[in-house]
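Teaching note: in complex prediction, the entire set of molecules is handled at once rather than each chain in isolation. The prompt given to students was simply: 'Predict the structure of this complex.' The entities are:
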Amino acid sequence: MRFSGISFVKNEELSIEKNDDEQDVTAIKYVYFKNQWRLVITLYNGCRVYSENGSRLLTYIEVPENNTKFYGESGFDNYFMGITSITMKKGNEAICVGNSLGEVHFIENSKENYFSNAVAVKIKGETAVTSLASSKAYSLLFVGDALGHVHMFQFETLKDYKLLKTIDLENGSNPVNAMAMLEKSDASVDPLLVTADFVGRLKIFNMLTYSCLVEVYAHARTITALDTSSEELAVLSASEDTYLHVWKLSVEKNQKTKLNLVESYNCDDQMIMGAVISSTKPFDVAFLAYDSETIRVLNGVAL
Amino acid sequence: MVEPKSTLRIRKFATKGSPNYLVNNFTHGGEYFAYATNLDKIYCQVFRISSE
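The expected output is the structure of the full assembly:
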């Protein structure tokens, strides 16, 4: 699929009324759930799940105003952030959203129009969830927190799970900004987790051995967007430093794993807020800057 | 350096407040892209990749 033909075909414009200036969007992400793409938006006080084209609100979580544990004394102490989906070992699927109480909500859809949600995980300590990722092949959920840790859970079912490992990114207790998986369909490479942090660093971990394979100071400022193209072991990173980088991981037997910079783009002194790379050839990159009115597309990045 | 070959102007929202495009985030799934802004309301545009 090429990105070059992006157009406002059958576009939907959603508008969500705000009760308060602080009730803003914290994240937006498409997740693959029950053979369909779903658009998930996290807000300060909950989240919303839409159909793929945004035309139908399927379900939502909204923390009641009288929940003093969530809202605290000032009224807006907490927020929702972090979006992914998971397939558990017994086959159940869930959309996962995190919040600043360190909880991960699982949204399930047992009947056609009936969605339920429950807190599946609460990470230890007083820290917020800042990003989520998952491995569908291994039923793993990765929970990144505000103190630079990644907690790795394996789910049999919603209530039957175990914490396999907590990894310290050793980034000075700064948040894990984004995570993404590299999983080749032929399983010729072990599943890899890419982490992006507040200080502009990328790390890649082997999720079977938990070893850190690569560490790169990729950006001078916070990494704001991370995406991967698994079959080519490509990583896309973008940052407040106005740069967008495309990397390719080389994994050869008996040789050190390397992350090579394939392509760079400087976005005219604008902070890049979102960037995506296509999953198949030709590899196109689309990105958007803060306060920009254009989506830009780089066609055919050579990997 | 690869130069952008294709650009798409984002539709301007009719807002009460700032005329800026305060893009919050951007995502892609299947045939669709979406992004969200934080203005006087939360706006989100979803659009499809054409087959051209």
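Point out the following to students. The first strand of chain B starts at residue 6 and ends at 9. Chain B touches chain A at residues 1-13, 20-38, 40-52 (CB under 8 Å).
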